[in-house]
Amino acid sequence: MPKPRLQQLMSERQLWHARGAGVARRNTQHSVSSGFAALDQALHLGGWPVHGSTELLCSQSGIGELELVLPSLAERSRQRPVLWLNPPHLPFAPALEQHNLSCHQHYVLRCTTPREQLWAAEELLRSGAFSSLLSWFDGRPLQDRQLRRLHLAAREGNCWHLHFRDIRCQPQTSPAPLRLSLSASSQHLHVEVFKQSGGHAGQRLQLPRPASLLWQQQPASSWPVYRQAPRRRLNLVASSRPEGALQRLPLGLDTLPRPGTPH
């Protein structure tokens, strides 16, 4: 068989042309804006690469890693549903709605063993049924062969695989085209572009963190709801007999948070 021509290899994205980096940046078919101008500028595609695996290496969970991807997930979920595979916490439906993500487009799947989770992740990524898949793998780090199978399955199914991993996995080699390390301070989420195929790495960014996360990582006794003056108690009455005899039931409302405050 004759060897494929150079142009054919370029069109199939088997080769990377250095001078074509600017063209790749404008190719929105292979990327989606992150919703953060500074992050888009640091990524050579001008946004998230939505075909294949993207690794988010976190120092701990709940530091704002989901806030980083929710704007893009809102756009992706308009095309196909989004799957959450073994998330550390159940997604909070009202919070998704606040970010313009319809709960009807989000599914949660929990697997009991790492073997089941790997099989489910690979099959779901390859199925083409989901626009994005968010995965958390507990236990020992995945091997290079396993990571490569997940990445290739995501590319085959045209799915964006968001792989949340412990930051201790950073020294391990990975086929993921984009790897970001995330850590947090009191008011900022620190983002470092650890690896991006076809572009430069090493950029360090500081993005503002949601104010609610600042309170959640403080002792509950320091929350504003506990520092406010006790509110007036309300007595509720309930009928216990048909003839209308009443029993007074005191219900303390001073321990309930006001609307809009962290709880």
UniProtKB/TrEMBL annotation:
The cross-references to InterPro entries, in alphabetical order and at most eight, read:
ImuA_translesion, P-loop_NTPase, UCP037290
By its UniProt entry, which NCBIfam families does this protein fall under?
ImuA_translesion
Q: What is the name attached to this protein's record? A: Translesion DNA synthesis-associated protein ImuA
**Organism field:** Spongiibacter thalassae
The gene behind this protein is imuA
